[in-house]
Amino acid sequence: MKPDYDLAIIGGGINGAGIARDATGRGARVLLLEQGDLAQGTSSASTKLIHGGLRYLEHYEFALVREALSEREVLWSIAPHIIWPMRFVLPHRAGLRPRWLLRLGLFLYDHIGGRRALPPAQTINLSQSPEGEVLKPAYTKGFVYSDGWVDDARLVVLNARDAALRGADIRTRCKVEALRRSGGQWQIETSQGSFTAGAVVNAAGPAVLDLLGRAGQETRQQMRLVRGSHIVVPRLFDHEKAYFFQLPDGRIFFAIPYEEDFTLVGTTDRDHTGPLSDVRASEEEVAYLCAGVNEYFRRQITPDDVVWTYSGVRPLVSDGSGRPEAATRGYRFEVDGGEGEPPLLSVFGGKITTYRHLAAGAVDRLAPLVPAITGTPWTHGAALPGGDFPKEGQGNLIDALHARRPDLPHPVLRRLVRCHGTLVLASDGPVSATMAQDGEDFGHGLYACEVDWMMREEWAAEPADILWRRTKLGLRFDARQTARLEKYMAERRA
Fold first, then answer.
1. CA gap 471, 198 in Å, rounded
2. Domain 394-493 architecture
3. What is the CA radius of gyration of the chain?
4. Confidence of residue 113 (pLDDT cuts 50, 70, 90)
5. Can you give the residue ranges of the FAD dependent oxidoreductase domain (predicted)?
6. 378-392: per-residue pLDDT in tens?
7. pLDDT of residue 324
């Protein structure tokens, strides 16, 4: 009997969504299963960077850095509304990595990854620059280099949406309860019913080994679960550059402009031993990040200044590294099955910058085992939903939306364009043509029209899906506004 789907993907993070998009575009009938919301776990808890990983060079991970650097401008080109370039200020700190070593690292960073449009690194006199004014007087020399920023959760959602537009079946809040081979195909029991598939991808992230166990599979692969925590504080500086800081313990952290009025600070690296259902920043991690800020900035902060924290567990391939920050950010595939058995491909590790390349590699590995998969990798040249405009065209799109909706304040226009791209001008898109069609205003420019769109087109079901993953308006919403949104969404679901 023919299975319901050619390929079932378990896990709605960036790897699962990326594989679903690639495989659907190559002809497979794809089912994506996620037990919660898309990007609810690790994929919405990154440092929001599309980067090669400058610090990985000192761990000799040249191949990983090259792969990630080659992806920066590819991802920028297919999603310029949610990914854009950012310049990073790297102050030199006496007694830590010497200036010649930093300069050498930045030279390699500029030249091993095929940089084309991004500007190169350069030295900077912090004592005579706006970027140095907010730092303590001891920091007078440094460098500026290029990387990229990403709205990580929206990147997941847009990959899933593009997969759905091409025919994939995306099912959120659909927990896999049992997984077994039967009759030459996979039988998958879920909270939403039973499905069959010719092949399965295990993209469960930190739960990859747990899912293998439930499928009755063994693996020699070992994982290291590392928790990365971040804090968000009121804006520490007014310019649009970010900072890359070194600390005396050998670690690094970033301070990044965030959502107009805030600064994002992170990340930590701590081995995570608790349940995956309880991942949060510890008091020690919050204090550590505050102390890092206070090492560099004139303005001092305490944990009382923190307006939000978030944490994610990175499923890293265990490579014997002593310290969590030294563990590889690379990825591996393991394929089980053959000789008449339906295949199971498990994904171990990975990072958000290399997701598209990982997805293409995973589908290539499956192609000889899944007859429906044809063709070659294609996602490098295909825009994600809303991304079909020039990389430099964000301002033009804001102007076009303003001409259509002059009543909307500029910060709202900017958020809508950075969230939805060209879809803001679609007749059936997330933004109404007139104020009269907006529906209820829940606050801060979030109208019922956009909420309906996210529920209908982006699988949002709860307020947190919208306030913390489809947008970051949770930083601004109060309890009353959140309660009203929750009531409205419950009514719409009913």
1. 36
2. Orthogonal Bundle (1.10)
3. 23
4. confident
5. 6-356
6. 999 999 999 998 877
7. 60
